Amino acid sequence: xxxxxxxxxxxxxxxxxxxxxxxxxxxxxxxxxxxxxxxxxxxxxxxxxxxxxxxxxxxxxxxxxxxxxxxxxxxxx
Amino acid sequence: xxxxxxxxxxxxxxxxxxxxxxxxxxxxxxxxxxxxxxxxxxxxxxxxxxxxxxxxxxxxxxxxxxxxxxxxxxxxxxxxxxxxxxxxxxxxxxxxxxxxxxxxxxxxxxxxxxxxxxxxxxxxxxxxxxxxxxxxxxxxxxxxxxxxxxxxxxxxxxxxxxxxxxxxxxxxxxxxxxxxxxxxxxxxxxxxxxxxxxxxxxxxxxxxxxxxxxxxxxxxxxxxxxxxxxxxxxxxxxxxxxxxxx
Lengths: 77, 246
What we know:
The structure holds 2 protein chains of 2 kinds. Chain A is an alpha+beta fold. Chain A has helices at residues 25-35, 60-75, and strands at 17-20, 46-50, 53-57. Chain A has 2 helices and 3 strands, in the order E-H-E-E-H. Chain B has 2 domains: 2-117 and 234-244; 120-229, Alpha-Beta Plaits, CATH 3.30.70. Chain B is elongated. At the A-B interface, strand 1 and helix 1 of A face helix 3, strand 6, helix 7 and strand 10 of B.
């Protein structure tokens, strides 16, 4: 995608990305929102809150990388 | 067992195959090429379920993140070459012939979908209102959740009530709906999200839409936009296909 920006999620460099707002991890949340019907039990589901933003993750490996990205962005330079 | 990912007109299949061939450098690409199921002038991209994940059981199982991204990768490759109706993950048929029969049964709706989403993409917009900034209408100004300090309201302006936030989310949704071809029914007040919206936008209009999202943002209502996505929320044919799936 032309709007794609850098991402910490392995293997999805060409996938949709956050194009406004600044939280890359939301791309994963929106992917799940689109591809998985409500009511499906997801493996490794966890709801976490980072910097007061509640996010849904499927995978702990992704969770770790995404949380780090979020914290870095929220804390700023 | 065949797992469908997207449906397009038969004439777009050759271009879609070329787009898919570029994925073969990706390590996640299945060793066996996806196959096509055809009916009524339509072509559905399918993969053998066991090939998608490498080791997926034939029966329904929770998808992994890799499976979801791989599905999305296939859908986007096809969509880059032709208008295509995207399917959610997990629409499976016991055989190609069963998938072909379902495609035929759903063809009318799928053609309507293709006309509706022509040259368009979906953008997601979420509106976040930090809970520490929300005041209960019946309280005497106490905040719903404890403030943590950083990012707390800096002004002396009255804290918004839940009704205020809902009203603001509705206004944001209406503005975005008016700037798009179509909007999915908004999800208001879902957890911390004041608004979860999906909007159908012409491929060439995404920059203007994103610019509008930026202008609608306020210090107490952050907006997040992701995409462009295949128009999952603006098609009806996949539900018909799913109802016929195994």
